[in-house]
Structure formats: C-alpha cells, structure tokens
Amino acid sequence: MEKPSRYLANSSTALEQLRGLIHQHESTPGTPLPTERELAENLGVGRREVRRALDVLEEEGRIWRKQGKGTFIGPAAPVSPLALQGLVQQTNMLEVMEARLQIEPSLARLAALRASPENLALMQRMLERIDNVNPDDPDLNELWDSAFHRAIAEAAGNRLMLGLFDTLDAVRREPAWHHLRELARTPAKVDRYNDHHHRIMIAIRQRQPHEAATAMREHLLDLQHALIQAIHLEDDTP
Which residues pair with 70 in a beta bridge? Predict the structure, then answer.
C-alpha cells in the first residue's frame, strides 16, 4: 500500500487505509491490529491521526479494544471500495459534489425507510461526536462528518450503493484537495452543516423519506456552493 506523505496525510486518509487493512482480514475476525506506533509508521501518519481513525472504526463496530491486550478486528468488515486507480486524476471536487448530489439524497431516503434501531443509534452517536468537535479542528470535524454520512449509507441497506458511496468518499478525501475542503469548513459554515445533520437525522428517525432526501440535498448544495467559493478564492490567490 502506497504511503501518503506526512504533509498531506490526515485522519481521513488513515481511516481509508485502515478500512483496506481490515478488509484484507474480514474472514478472520479477532485478528489483532499492529500497535498505534506501528500503524502510524506503516501508514505514514501521526499517532493522533491513527487514534482518531480507530475511534471511528470502534464506533462502527469494525474493531474492538481490550485494555492491555490491543486492538482487534471485529465481526463485520466494511465494503471494499471499487478500484480507485486513475479516478482522482480524471475528476475534480465539483464532479465529486455532482456525484454526491445524485447518490446521497437517495441513501438518506432509503435510510428513513430501512434504518434499524442499531443504525439509528450509530448515527446518533456519530452526530454527538460531531457536536463535541471543536470547530477549529477541521481534521477531526471532517473525520466524524464523513463517518456520519457513511452511517446513513449503511442504514440504507443496499450493499452496492454502500460500495459506490465508499468509492466516492475515498475520492472525495483525496489529500491534494485537503486545502479546498478546509476553506469550505470555516467555523461558521461548520455550525450550519451541523444544523443540516440534525435535520437529516430527525427526518430519518421520524421515517420521513422525502424530508430526509430533501434535507440531504440542501446540505450538499450548501457545501457545493462553499467549495465553489473556495475554488474561486484559490484561483484568485497570487
């Protein structure tokens, strides 16, 4: 697995690589993971980023930890993303947003129809994590934001669409676009995005598929607008 540079790598890239590692051992639950120090060295990220990524995987039930013993792969492994080779070089953030606008409102609609009590509890935990993130910590905010959206995708109950979501999310988190994503996540904008997340969650919990899809679409359109502004700002920078 090619290691990203430490300059570009963050918690999201660590999470993506850990998902791949877990997928390799999906047939042998209980397999121990390397130590945080070893993972940091192997993945080319800091130990803080590794710990944050492991927190997400633990919430999702992909891993479990036993004090003094280590971290182990759980009974369920994530869907393996489709091949990403060449996709990043052939696309851009605006195309990514167009794709998200086609897929994620439908996932929110299906989640409102199909989410199990366990799915709802996971989404609520992700939402609480987001609420507790300092707005000035874009890395951690992006990490739990992405985890919340993935919990919705999983609740939709369509494995193929979940695979498409994972592929799209992996492309979206391309490290080279990290600066643009940060420009689109000012503290004021993060507060607005969090309000959107609560609206989406309410609609899913209340089994309102149309409202869930609408709230997700409005959320993504707002983010798309912020990214367009960030791109223009980037283009105007000497």
Answer: 66
Across the strands, what pairs with 65? 71
Average pLDDT of 143-152? 94
- Please compute the mean of the pLDDT values over residues 180-187 and round it to a whole number: 83
Residues 10, 178: contact at Cβ < 8 Å? yes
> Does residue 158 sit in helix, strand or coil?
coil
The reported pLDDT for the residue numbered 236 is 62
pLDDT band at residue 77, thresholds of 50, 70 and 90? very low
Give me the amino acid identity at 36: E
Nearest-angstrom CA–CA distance, 213 and 204? 9
CB-based contacts of 84-87 (< 8 A; 24+ apart in sequence): 84/167, 84/170, 84/171, 87/167, 87/171
Nearest to 175 by CA among 78, 64, 88, 57: 88
- pLDDT level of residue 238 (50, 70, 90 thresholds): low
Which whole number is the average pLDDT over 70-87? 64
Cα–Cα dist 171/96, whole Å = 8
Pure H helices in the chain: 11-24, 36-43, 47-60, 87-90, 93-114, 117-131, 138-155, 159-172, 178-183, 187-205, 209-236
CB under 8 Å to 59, separation ≥6 — which residues?
Answer: 122, 125, 126, 129, 147
Which candidate, 47, 42, 41, 4, places its Cα nearest to that of 21? 42
Between CA 73 and CA 31 the distance in angstroms is 5
